[in-house]
């Protein structure tokens, strides 16, 4: 018995000296068998209901298709934390993912990190906010954009608003981040609708997609321009901030507010008459569309890289009641 123990100790000592680790046959077999592609979903602020809904939709899709791919979900603390999102791209690339599906916080700042990921053979799919076309062309990159026509969606919201105003009325716009393509597109859609209807845009400022910032900016707008009859917010978080601002200056009864994203809080506000309309870009499915595009490109690496336009629909009290 002592001889057996001594031999066992000798073997263990030799193994330790050689740097051996104890193997787990079950885990090793599982890892070897699990050759499914690994996809990283990198979003903007998970504090924004739109992106938490997007994350839930992606997670449910992966669970329903667990035999096809693995999913890692990431987000940043707020819409302006661009450096953290760049770091997430680098971390996901270093972890060995096969594809990155990203809703970039900035249309330009993420391009260099994504270029390096693509050089490592990682498939990249852009959702929600389009990456800067000129930068992609300059870098010689082809990245498919999967998402809605933000300008058309915002213009539809603006046209509905115009039908509730009188020609010559004053309006204001709460913009998203000015370096984000979707913010620029939504602003352009709002402007096109207002100018076509003969409205007067008396103020247009960025509230950086954030509710608290929108409250602050909208309060200032309404104080400086009491003639404002409506506020067009480039996302629903900012529309909620505009509601708070309107209440604080006693304009909650007559000020018209529209948004974009169709989050649950704004649906409630529409039913309560606090918001006139929003645009639904189907956040619960947007990441899913991007994941499906990534899987397609992983299956067919030589496939043509093409954009995919996804639905965007007008939401009003009438559509919610159906």
From TrEMBL:
Pfam families: Peripla_BP_4. Keywords: Signal. It is found in: Cell envelope. InterPro entries: Peripla_BP_I, SBP_2_dom. It comes from the Bacteria. One of its GO terms (molecular function) is carbohydrate binding. Residues 1-23 form the signal peptide. One of its GO terms (cellular component) is cell envelope. Residues 39-299 form the Periplasmic binding protein domain. Belongs to the bacterial solute-binding protein 2 family. This is D-ribose-binding periplasmic protein. It comes from Aureliella helgolandensis. The lineage of its organism: Bacteria, Pseudomonadati, Planctomycetota, Planctomycetia, Pirellulales.
């Amino acid at each position: 018995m002592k001889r057996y123990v001594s031999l066992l100790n000798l073997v263990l000592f030799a193994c330790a000296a050689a740097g051996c680790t104890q193997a787990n046959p079950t885990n090793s077999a599982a890892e070897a068998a699990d050759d499914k592609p690994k996809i990283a979903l990198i979003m903007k602020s998970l504090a924004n209901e739109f992106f938490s809904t997007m994350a839930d939709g992606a997670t449910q899709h992966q669970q329903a298709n667990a035999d096809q791919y693995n999913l890692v979900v990431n987000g940043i603390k707020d819409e302006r934390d661009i450096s953290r999102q760049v770091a997430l791209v680098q971390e996901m690339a270093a972890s060995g993912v096969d594809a990155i599906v990203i809703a970039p916080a900035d249309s330009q700042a993420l391009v260099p990190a994504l270029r390096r990921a693509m050089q490592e053979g990682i498939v990249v799919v852009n959702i929600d906010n389009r990456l800067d076309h000129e930068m992609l062309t300059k870098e010689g990159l082809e990245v498919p954009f999967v998402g809605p026509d933000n300008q058309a969606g915002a213009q539809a919201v603006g046209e509905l608003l115009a039908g509730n105003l009188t020609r010559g009325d004053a309006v204001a716009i709460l913009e998203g981040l000015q370096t984000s393509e979707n913010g620029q597109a939504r602003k352009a859609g709002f402007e096109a609708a207002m100018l076509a209807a003969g409205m007067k845009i008396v103020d247009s400022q960025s509230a950086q997609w954030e509710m608290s910032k929108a409250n602050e900016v909208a309060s200032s707008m309404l104080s400086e321009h009491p003639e404002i009859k409506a506020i067009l917010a480039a996302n629903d978080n900012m529309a909620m901030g505009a509601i708070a601002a309107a209440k604080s200056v006693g304009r909650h009864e007559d000020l018209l507010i529209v948004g974009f994203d169709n989050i649950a809080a704004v649906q409630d506000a529409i039913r309560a008459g606090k918001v006139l309309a929003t645009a639904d870009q189907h956040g619960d499915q947007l990441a899913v569309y991007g994941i499906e595009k990534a899987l397609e490109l992983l299956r067919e690496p030589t496939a043509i890289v093409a954009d995919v336009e996804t639905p965007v629909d007008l939401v009003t009290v009438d559509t919610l009641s159906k």
